[in-house]
Amino acid sequence: MLAEVDRYLITKDSGYYVDCTFGGGGHSLYLLNKYKNIKIIAFDQDGHALQRFETNSDIQKVKDRIVFCNDNFRNIETNLKNLNIPKVAGLLADLGVSSKQLDDKSRGFSFNSDSVLDMRMDSRQHLTAYDIVNTFPKEKLEQIFFEYGEESFSRQIAQKIVETRIKTNIKTCNQLKDIICSVKYSKGNINPATKVFQALRICVNDELGSLKDLLNSLENILDTGARAVIMSYHSLEDRIVKQAFKSAQSLKIINKKVVTATQEEIKINPRSRSAKIRTAEKQ
Ligand SMILES: C[S@@+](CC[C@H](N)C(=O)[O-])C[C@H]1O[C@@H](n2cnc3c(N)ncnc32)[C@H](O)[C@@H]1O
User: Mean pLDDT across the stretch 162-184?
Assistant: First the structure.
């Protein structure tokens, strides 16, 4: 959704913008190539994104205008302070997991793999999906599946996990998928394990906590007239963004109705089907 990001984010064609979620660098590159006088501070907690940043030949061409912080965006204020940048001209966050992370079977995000349950975006962190599945109490598992995955079979799945792990550790993505499929039938072409895997990913990476911390920093780091554009893919995230924008005294909501992808965009990029963009401007 490059056009939408461009339209809502850019209010001046110079200064420092923040890309909180560099990923493959698509948004950063688009903006740097279009606006020759802006600079970007890019965040990504994933070491693979840092590697892409260092090796991508298109990034090399604009390297004098982009700085990479291999950190969680929840630490944005500390990073900007260290870089001596008190205020920024705008901020973009394209939340969640990237297709590169999902497609790399060894990362343990995807249910069709014999990889160990991992799901860490930042491999320096300790907690993995394996730890959660094999050590969290049944009630906690149920809560995670229900709250983060809106999984209606959360109780039965949590019960089955606990029964299984007494006998043997649940090590791989396929093992967990089979447990889920033993208590839940598939509907249409959506895999029955989708919601539980999403819930585990959100929990492993404390995605909602990181988002709340980022939103709490907005009023301190945005320059007057600067905008925050947040793209979310989950109803819980969207609710958090909506609420934070509403309750921040110095933020004005720019799009009262969420912006969603056009049919053309959905055809090219199916992930954009569930994308919701909210924008607020610092007064
Ligand atoms: C949806 S992808 C972004 C794709 C990117 N906009 C592009 O054009 O390629 C999300 C990226 O944000 C990173 N990410 C997610 N949550 C993060 C957080 N709290 N702090 C830093 N990076 C995060 C992920 O590692 C992933 O690479």
Answer: 97
The Å distance, Cα 156 to ligand 1 centre, comes to 32
The reply to whether ligand 1 has any atom less than 6 angstroms from the CB of 149 is no
- Domain assignments of the chain as residue spans, ordered by start: 2-100+207-282, 126-204
146 Cβ inside 6 Å of ligand 1: no
Task: Compute the distance between CA of residue 160 and CA of residue 152 in angstroms, rounded to an integer.
Answer: 14
Q: How many CB atoms lie within 10 A of CB 24?
A: 16
68: CA distance to ligand 1 center in Å?
13
Domain 126-204 in this protein, CATH class: mainly alpha
Determine if ligand 1 sits within 6 Å of the CB of residue 281: no
Residue 85 has pLDDT above 90, yes or no: yes
Q: Is the CB of 70 under 6 A from ligand 1?
A: no
Confidence of residue 135 (pLDDT cuts 50, 70, 90): very high
The whole model's pTM is what?
0.96
Q: Separation of 9 CA from ligand 1 center, angstroms?
A: 17
CATH number of the 2-100+207-282 domain: 3.40.50.150
Predicted pLDDT of residue 269: 86
Closest CA to 210 of 200, 202, 199: 202
Q: Is the CB of 90 under 6 A from ligand 1?
A: no
